[in-house]
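Appendix B. One record, verbatim.
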Amino acid sequence: MVMQSVSITIPESIAEYAMPKDEREILIRNAMILYPYIKNEVISHGKAAQLLNIHKMDLIALYSTLGIPYLDQTKEELKSDLSVLRNLRSKTA
């Protein structure tokens, strides 16, 4: 993977936290840079994983360990989706 340096301006008080100490911290930092683009549906989890050079399921697992769910639905949305699926299933049976 070709790397490129990027300069950012951050408050001095958080500078020590912005310097990853190992490969895992680098991966987490880069995944967190991409997350807003996933959340805003600019890129998919699959595309983000490709950019990070990891498998999609590994990215989903990484976000999960950070408390970021793969499925971001309310209970009502989930119930509605299940209802639609059950309705479709009954029509095809």
